[in-house]
Amino acid sequence: MSRSTEICTKPLKSKTRRTVLKAGGTLLFSVLVPTLAHAAQIVAVRVWPADDYTRVTLENDSDLKTSHFVVQNPDRMVVDIEGIELNSTLKELVAKIQPNDPYIKQVRVGQNRPGVVRLVFDLKEEVKPQVFTLPPVAGYQHRLVFDLYPVNPPDPIAMMIEKGEWPSSNPGEVAPPVAQTKPDPKPTPPLQPQPDQPQIARIDPKPDRTSNLTRMITIALDPGHGGEDPGATGSGGNHEKHVVLSIAKRLKARIEQQPNMRVMLTRDADFFVPLGVRVQKARKVQADLFVSIHADAFVTPSARGSSVFALSEKGASSTAARWLANKENSADMIGGINIKSHDRQLASVLLDLSTTAQINDSMKLGGAVLGEIGGINKLHKGSVEQAGFAVLKAPDIPSILIETAFISNPEEEAKLTDNAYQDQMADAILKGIKKYFAHNPPLARNVLT
Predict the structure, then answer these.
(1) Most C-beta atoms within 10 A of its C-beta, which of 79, 339, 348, 373?
(2) Rounded to an integer, what distance in angstroms lies between the CA atom of residue 65 and that of residue 81?
(3) In angstroms, what CA-CA distances link 34 with 1, 26, 30, 38, 249?
(4) How far apart are the C-alpha atoms of 201 and 208, rounded to whole Å?
(5) What is the pTM of this model?
(6) Cα 94 to Cα 115: distance, rounded to the nearest angstrom
(7) Could you tell me if 394 and 350 are in contact, meaning their C-beta atoms sit under 8 angstroms apart?
(8) pLDDT for 364-389, tens place per residue?
(9) Over the stretch 247-260, which tens digit does the pLDDT of each residue have?
(10) Alpha-carbon distance 146 to 77, whole Å?
């Protein structure tokens, strides 16, 4: 198929056929008018490029039928959308493809035949597309989604090493330990279990000549929401997804300055990551901690303060915690996941394998971080709360969710968008992490898989 015929069919060349069409114009118009009056309308187009995948979203006022196929040499994807006519909004898609998009070179849009619009995505490499629709949710109408995944997905660790963001280490390699933020009044030998600190029994019991050293620590930072899911929005129009990504990047820079820590971001740009994938990413790099960063919101603007949450096996510690967990767990519906490809078995495994030990460690981590955050902002509640947050369900990684402040509160929205406050929040979280590790050395690991 040639490029010209990908977009539209050949025009009629027969003079006789043109005459017949002209003579029957009135009848044809009367037949088409009712159809066009009820044709679906594209109301918005959005493109979310990322190293993981590129998402293209067409928002419309009714559900759409589509068909698609992939062509090679050169690589391209052809999509036919039925029941619509080409409009100015859909034409905007052409200008939304940026030169730095990892997977899309350009897109061509045309009226293939009456009632059918054809999109042709010229690709930079072979992709494995997922095309699906989403029902109306939150502020969105019907959505038609194209997720373009590379056939050979990049390895996250290899990518970070290539960018110089991942200090590599050999199995068993050690690095300087985390400095204690508040030295004990009576110093004790390093890494020796104490009667009042049973958690220290988690360290490797094998004798080690370098017991004053510890291995490289890996921390997964999870900026909430992203892409199609803006999270909460303040009265000033600021989106949670932008604020928390900025804080996460500031925290990442600080952690990387530590001699024995490295960082993985579950997202480093404005794109959507399903909750289960966030957990998968952390487990793939064998993270020692998982820290999800959010900005709270409530129906009234008076609510304020920072909070820290851990997972609960039995139920939420308060009605507010349960409400918040339900709200955060709805991110997949708002951000949009392909239900057909969603790994339900993985979700059930994560739920079933969440352990008491993981939750206990998460509570200790949460307490250390909450204590530091309380020094820069009012606390919404003075203790770590618990609820069934899906993103905290890694069975083998201490995990917390931090609500940095209420973006729905005008005063706290101003704080959240202030560079100085974001720096203070990043500093406080790092201090809490270091305090946690000072009393809870990470388990020894022989290999990184």
Answers:
(1) 373
(2) 6
(3) 33, 14, 8, 7, 53
(4) 15
(5) 0.80
(6) 20
(7) yes
(8) 999 999 999 999 999 998 999 999 99
(9) 999 999 999 999 89
(10) 10
Whether the CB-CB separation of 359 and 310 falls below 8 Å is answered with: yes
Q: How far apart are CA 386 and CA 303, in angstroms?
A: 19
Alpha helices in 393-442 (DSSP H): 410-416, 419-439
The 3-state DSSP class for residue 264 equals strand
Question: Which long-range contacts link 32-40 to residues 24+ away (Cβ below 8 Å)?
Answer: 32/114, 35/115, 36/85, 39/83, 39/84, 39/85, 39/115, 40/64, 40/83, 40/84
Residues in a beta bridge with 127: 150
∠ CA 280-281-283 to the nearest 5 degrees? 65
Asked if 412 contacts 356 with a C-beta cutoff of 8 angstroms, the reply is no
User: What gap in Å lies between CA 390 and CA 275, rounded to an integer?
Assistant: 7
- What one-letter code names the amino acid at 15? K
pLDDT in tens, 130-176: 999 999 999 999 999 999 999 988 777 877 787 777 776 543 444 44
Residue 331 host element (H or E): helix 331-335
CA distance readout (Å), 112 to 4, 26, 123, 129, 416: 10, 23, 20, 21, 48
> Is the confidence at residue 415, as pLDDT, over 60?
yes
- Per DSSP, the three-state class of 181 is coil
In the numeric block, which tokens belong to residue 292? 């999800």
Name the band, by pLDDT with cuts 50, 70 and 90, for residue 189: very low
Tokens representing residue 215 in the block: 């291995």
Tokens representing residue 214 in the block: 């510890």
- The structure tokens listed for 163 are 């960018």
pLDDT at residue 49 greater than cutoff 90: yes
In which element (H, E) is residue 294 found? strand 289-296
